[in-house]
Specification:
Layout (H helix, E strand, L loop, with lengths): L1 H19 L2 H43 L9 H7 L6 H5 L8
Helix pairs in contact: 1-2
């Protein structure tokens, strides 16, 4: 999010420089615009990579928790049967308490 905001700020600075520049500043503005275009392209590629990673993570989460498929009602029960983390009392060596 910070990179996107920085890119937007840089784009607005470049637009301001390109719009109000004189003869000598024009070539500098063109070079900056090309650099900005490369930065925008890099940000687009980063967005694509992050979108792909998000899709892969969402698929993994849906596979683990049964994300809305046919077995949606059974998935929480199956997840409860699996023990993802040990009970803290087991790690500390304290005796198990009886349920209320």
């Amino acid at each position: 999010a910070a990179r996107l905001e920085a890119a937007r700020q840089r784009a607005s600075e470049l637009k301001a420089r390109a719009g109000g520049g004189g003869g000598g500043e024009k070539s500098s503005a063109v070079n900056s615009t090309e650099d900005g275009g490369a930065e925008v392209e890099k940000l687009r590629q980063d967005k694509l990579v992050l979108s792909n990673q998000k899709a892969a993570l969402m698929k993994m989460v849906q596979d683990v928790y049964g994300g809305g498929g046919g077995g949606g009602a059974e998935a929480p029960a199956e997840a409860a049967d699996r023990k993802l983390l040990p009970d803290p009392r087991e790690l500390l060596g304290t005796p198990k308490m009886k349920p209320l």
